[in-house]
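Re: export button greyed out
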Amino acid sequence: MDIFDDTIKEIRDWFDSQKNSGQTRCYSASPLMNNPFSSNELPGDGRNGKIVLKEDTQVELGHPSMGSCAETLATHRLDLVSDGCITLVGPEISETQEPILPFAQIIIAALKRSKEIDGTSQGTIEIENTASMMDRTAHMYVQTDGYMIRSVPNLIWARVSKEACRSGFSLKLLGERLIAAVKHQCNNVTACEVFFVTSSKSDVGQLDDIVEKARAKQRKLETYTVGSDGELECTQEIDCSACSEQVVCDTIRDVIRIRKGDRVVTIRAGENTESGPE
Amino acid sequence: MDKKIVAVCGKGGSGKTALVALMTKYLLENYKHRLLVIDADPTMNLSSVLGLSPNKTVNDIREQIIKEARKAGKTEKNNLARSLDYMLFEALIEADRFSFLGMGRPESLGCYCPVNDFLKSGIETLAENYDVVIIDGEAGVEQINRQVMKGVDTVVIVSDISNRGLQTAAIIKNVITSHKKIFKYQKLGLVLNRVSGQEEQLQPYIVKTGLDLLGFVPEDPLVAKFDLEGRPLLELPCESEAYRATSGVWAHISAPTHETGR
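Workaround output, generated via the alternate export path:
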């Protein structure tokens, strides 16, 4: 089982549970006729130039006061991802007169399986790296004229201009752009699915609680990297003496030293797993 | 119209905040420009003069960045790089037909030049989206240069008609011109505030400052009344003499220039 699989299942269960509410719909992404990438924003420098001012805004999604959640997750299990599917809980942009809506945007992707790294720490790191790349892609590559994103990790705040709405911008179209962009930018992605929520702050909050578990695993994982000898190295660029986890690291270093030569320690699915020679 | 970035500075009490408010009103009443007003004076009076209450200032962001930078690893650095636009957008007030950004008062000791540069790049990116940016500064332009913008199109030095006020205007002008390589500008001029019919007599004193005159703003009891009552100057009636004079000042500011400081 991969590191985010539990969370992906929980997300799917949550969306399944909403099906009876009458507010859920599923779209199938059609292939985009145009380039999915922004016409006004070139990736690379981490800044968002264009803004949609309030007076030009038709609807604001994920305003800090309304609830916001953004997450990107990956897995090696193709059966956990319904390729090209866009699920929306809540109103489409064209169906609401509200100027501000809560907003959750979750993107999940399945990666090519590779026997060499399947179930290893490299496999976990591939998942984590791809999730980060997907996150960056969602931030940098899907802004278009009239759709502005301001996002920090875990939160998304977007504006759709009146002009964009008149031109037919919709969450379905946004989902299609996200799927196309993720597949284009992440070579190892074989399937991609997008979930949106615009129904209520409470719904967005429930999803946020679910994905928080994945974020905790991600944070833990980001602290380590696998060295060429298979040992885990702490990557925190702070003085170890200031790190509250110092005791853990010191202990594990000692353990690794003791067992070096006949065993290595790998991290899989957020837990320490020992593996010895066959 | 070309984009315009205007910095207003001058001795404390000279009326620069009131002039910024009057220019804001003038632009809102007469043009459809996208207007950004930045309060870079740490005393932070402009927001109330415009009838706004900011919840967050650029300085709050600065403090957050400093705090996060103390313990940032690779991931946090990436997150910070990406979060700047979001944080600035949180601090931006989008009022009716104009936007406002309050710089606030720096709290952490230390110059934090890279932090200022980082914020400055975010503000400059934000400002690119507006037709006109007006910055209410401190006495001089040092703080604007350090924390807001590398350069502007026009620097307006505001003075009352006191000898000390005019001397200060001349000093500010000398500082600005001697730092041309650091602070870029195209036009530099003087606005004399609270003038009551002495325009002719003031000419020799204006010449002494070495500044081009951008206009006079008359003493206006309505402005004083609004100030005393704490009412936003945007609500001033259009008959206000000070307001009417602003059109002349703006005409000089927006006129093409042949000076090549910038």
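Residues 46 and 120 of chain B are 20 Å apart (CA to CA). The button fix ships in the next patch.
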